[in-house]
Amino acid sequence: MTTLDVETPHGPALVELHSAEEGTAVLLLGHGAGGGVDAPDLVAAARGATAAGVHVALVQQPYRVAGRRAPAPARQLDAAWLAVARWLGENWFRDLPMVFGGRSSGARVACRTASAGGAAAVLCLAFPVAPPKTPERHRLAELDAVDVPLLVVQGERDAFGRPESGSHREVVVVAGDHALKADPIGVTRAVEEWLVRVLRPLARPD
User: Fold this and answer.
1) How far apart are CA 193 and CA 139, in angstroms?
2) d(CA 86, CA 64)
3) Which domains does the chain have, with CATH numbers?
4) For residue 2, what are the CA distances in angstroms to 14, 17, 113?
5) C-alpha distance from residue 79 to each of 1, 113, 114, 172 (Å)
6) What is the DSSP string of 128-168?
7) Nearest Cα to 110, choosing from 119, 101, 118?
8) How many other CB atoms are there within 10 angstroms of residue 55's CB atom?
9) Is 1:17 a contact under the CB 8 Å cutoff?
10) Where would I find the KANL3/Tex30 alpha/beta hydrolase-like domain in this sequence (predicted)?
11) For residue 48, which of 16, 76, 160, 191 is within the disulfide window of CB 3.0 to 4.6 Å?
């Protein structure tokens, strides 16, 4: 594992790099609003990605690096994320396809920035469709705006709801709730199988 400090418009972000053998792509993973990159589903997803031959960059947002638990505004999260993605593309993973991903709040960031960041695909773990007490305040527009292959891995008892599959969107349901702790093997398997399938057309010829 390699740890990097990356400057962003809103302070330094911290990136943990996990290399895959002969990696053909890189998966950037962001954490939830109040958590870190050690969340069980992020660890499981990273394991699945490296097994699929994909490098992993676990991205800790500047507000968490600074020791704050309350998340920064969405525009700051998005700007910091894109700055990290650009820096990694220029300095570590030149010419490799990038997959944006994350859990909960991090999944929303991945969706919102996918187009601007040129993501080849998007992975959402525990996407928070709507607050449990106000289901009318849903965030489905963020998912619907993604026009590249999109995988959502959702707990069967997630209080934040579950999106439907769509033209670009696959939904895999695993045991557990919003924390996605109950079935890490299921998360790993879903991520590995999906990455192998969606990245195969992007593989560079020998």
Assistant:
1) 26
2) 20
3) 2-202 (3.40.50.1820)
4) 11, 5, 25
5) 25, 9, 12, 29
6) --S-TT-TTS--HHHHHT--S-EEEEEETT-TT--PPP-SS
7) 101
8) 24
9) yes
10) 25-167
11) 191
Question: 0.85 exceeded by the pTM?
Answer: yes
3-class secondary structure per residue, 58-92: EEECHHHHCCCCCCCCHHHHHHHHHHHHHHHHHHC
What type of residue is 191? V
Alpha carbon distance 148, 160 (integer Å): 24
* Confidence bin at 204 (pLDDT 50/70/90): low
Phi, psi of 30 (to 5 degrees): -105, 155
Q: At what angle do helices 40-51 and 184-199 cross, to 10 degrees?
A: 40
How deeply is 118 buried, as exposed, middle or buried, from its count of CB atoms within 10 A (0-12, 13-18, 19+)? middle
- Tens of pLDDT, residues 93-121: 999 999 999 999 999 999 999 999 999 99
What's the rounded Cα separation, in Å, for the pair 70 and 99?
26
Distance CA 109, CA 98 (A): 15
Q: How far apart are CA 187 and CA 76, in angstroms?
A: 29
